[in-house]
């Protein structure tokens, strides 16, 4: 195992009606003026925004509201939020929503607390030195942004989807009421479950020695989400399943499932960022669509790791590691299909041209300035090949 630091400072308040505690939690942070940041009309129609704002009023805390965050949150909305915060002298940003809203709130926090263009931090031109304090009321179990150090924003100019990771943006608190996720459409629920599992799988597939305990936690988390994602297809208002998935969302991306490893591969996320940036697809669906092609491209670099995944997640009994690895990849794709997730770009509704494939590959490699992944180093040519594999549903299930 590798040496590691584990830092998870977010206070979690979990359970029914916990959104009513938001005002008290904000007051504990010493805030005097809050930006309540949220997504679409559902947060208003459900009464959630009113309940959150009422809790702020009861604590004597002033607030402004800014809605309109969309999936793959936009830089233009971030800039709107930065301007509003500066005008109203906001000193705390409260995200009411899922990962997109939380990521947007973090970007606003960076922009207000630092001079210059906030996009510089996502374009890797500068590193932020401060961030307004952030809190979250979670309404979607998926991204894990409520306990992570990550924020991902899409710049409409060029369709660039980029991330900024620092501990400065970690939420001070996260309110998690599983009941708030009851009304999510099934597709959004399953996209969220896919994202949750992928955050753990990205860490699981690595090139280091691994801790038995970390592997056990990771495998239990993946199997738990798979089990409850299927229950939620039939029983979307099952509190126990919503609670299991919501807690898994946070644990999958607060670095717990990466302790003692090299940090994991993360190529699938980088590949999906370009799919999301170009085609504006749901993040979880994009991850499912590219994972199988990535796995077939890299598994021979460490077949025993993929074989362990196959045996411990799917109870595959094959003793040959390479055959077990392939069987595990196929089993994972079967699971995706069982919950309505795509396993290639075609099933995602995309028929990418060769020009689009090359553009995504170039952007993924930062135009030749980086590679992604640890199992295999993936530059523009390798990324293009993975995109082609995912784009061609006629390709048989074979090993590269």
Automatic annotation (TrEMBL):
Domain of life of the source: Bacteria
Keywords from the UniProt entry: Oxidoreductase
Pfam families, alphabetized: ADH_Fe_C, Fe-ADH
Limits of the Alcohol dehydrogenase iron-type/glycerol dehydrogenase GldA domain: 9-178
Segments forming domain Fe-containing alcohol dehydrogenase-like C-terminal: 194-364
Cellular component aspect of the GO annotation: cytosol
GO MF annotation terms: alcohol dehydrogenase (NADP+) activity; butanol dehydrogenase (NAD+) activity; metal ion binding; methylglyoxal reductase (NADPH) (acetol producing) activity
CDD domains per the UniProt record, alphabetical: BDH (cd08187)
Protein name from the UniProt record: Iron-containing alcohol dehydrogenase
The species this protein was found in: Anthropogastromicrobium aceti
């Amino acid at each position: 195992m590798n040496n590691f630091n584990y830092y998870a400072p977010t206070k979690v308040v979990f359970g029914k009606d916990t959104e009513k505690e938001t005002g008290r939690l904000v007051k504990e942070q010493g805030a005097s003026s809050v930006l309540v940041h949220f997504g679409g009309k559902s947060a208003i129609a459900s009464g959630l925004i009113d309940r959150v704002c009422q809790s702020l009023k009861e604590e004597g805390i002033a607030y402004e509201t800014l809605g309109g965050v969309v999936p793959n949150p936009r830089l233009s909305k971030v800039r709107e939020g930065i301007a509003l915060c500066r005008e109203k002298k906001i000193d705390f940003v409260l995200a009411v929503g899922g990962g997109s809203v939380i990521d947007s709130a973090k970007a606003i926090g960076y922009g207000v607390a630092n001079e210059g263009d906030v996009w510089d931090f996502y374009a890797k031109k500068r590193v932020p030195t401060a961030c307004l304090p952030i809190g979250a009321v979670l309404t979607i179990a998926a991204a894990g942004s409520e306990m992570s150090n990550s924020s991902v924003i899409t710049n409409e100019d060029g369709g660039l989807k980029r991330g900024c990771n620092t501990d400065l943006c970690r939420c001070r608190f996260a309110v998690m009421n599983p009941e708030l996720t009851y009304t999510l459409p099934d597709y959004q629920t399953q996209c969220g479950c896919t994202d949750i599992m992928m955050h753990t799988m990205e860490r699981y597939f690595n090139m280091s020695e691994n801790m038995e305990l970390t592997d056990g936690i990771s495998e239990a988390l993946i199997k738990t989400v798979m089990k409850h994602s299927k229950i939620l297809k039939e029983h979307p208002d099952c509190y126990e399943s919503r609670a299991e998935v919501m807690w898994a969302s946070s644990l999958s991306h607060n670095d717990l499932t990466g302790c003692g490893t090299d940090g994991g591969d993360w190529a699938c996320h980088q590949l999906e960022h370009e799919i999301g940036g170009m085609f504006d697809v749901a993040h979880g669906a994009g991850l499912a669509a590219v994972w199988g092609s990535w796995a077939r491209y890299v598994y021979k670099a460490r077949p025993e790791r993929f074989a362990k995944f196959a045996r411990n997640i799917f109870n595959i009994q094959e003793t040959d590691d390479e055959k077990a690895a392939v069987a595990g990849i196929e089993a994972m794709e079967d699971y995706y299909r069982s919950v309505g997730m795509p396993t290639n770009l075609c099933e995602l509704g995309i028929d990418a041209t060769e020009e689009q494939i090359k553009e995504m590959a170039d952007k993924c490699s930062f135009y030749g300035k980086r590679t992604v992944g640890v199992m295999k180093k993936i530059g523009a040519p390798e990324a293009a090949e993975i995109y082609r594999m995912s784009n061609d549903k006629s390709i048989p299930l074979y090993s590269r």
